[in-house]
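Chain X:
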Amino acid sequence: METYIVETLAYEDKPDRKHKQIAFLLGKAFEINLSFTLEKVDETHTRFIYAGHNKGVNFVGRAMLKLGSEKSNNKVVQEYMDRVEAESMK
């Protein structure tokens, strides 16, 4: 188990829009920056916008990011989006 200090960079909580941007340091090697936005489209639909980036903060982190493939990165994001969708349907 690991513990991280997560910094909230932006926060908005309005009836038709929710937004949160966070950042944290992962394993002393990666700076992670993520944002999540929910926008009300109509009474039965909500748009979910997820954005983020990882930045290597030392040699090991930068090397690992360069060795990773775009295909595997896209797979991780797609799996996350699939989990979000599954949870929203419960």
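Chain Y:
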Amino acid sequence: MHKIRPIGISLDERDRAILRLLQHDGRLTNLELAQRINLSPSACLRRVKLLEDSGLVARYVLLLDEDQAGLPGTAFVLVTLDQQGRAALDAFEAAIHDHPEITECCLLAGAADYMVRVVYADAADFERIHTDVLTQLPGVTRVQTTLALRTVKRTTALPV
């Protein structure tokens, strides 16, 4: 397994344990975290603060269950733009942020320019997203959709 090697900071096994535990449960108290890695609370807090200050810890978030939130559908959409210049890419990328049903967007090297991950409630909701959102984004000339039947693995945790 590949382990992360952050730039500008050296991690020991306790740091890696802190990161693994917090990636699994970001709500652990400092006391709980300290007990699990066998450190004093003050030493644990110092390590967490150093990891945060290094930039390795990007942010803390709450993850919702998509099914329970009424968004059981997932689609992966390949998007092709009419131009690939910086202005066209910037316009598309700025517009993506206005649509919460688009949960991820990646610039690609290949036939399509972007891949977006979309969550939706049902077929009618996806049709709305396709017609009123995806095809109306700046510069879009083609969208090609693949619907996910079931999510086998999805994680936000990196290997540490």
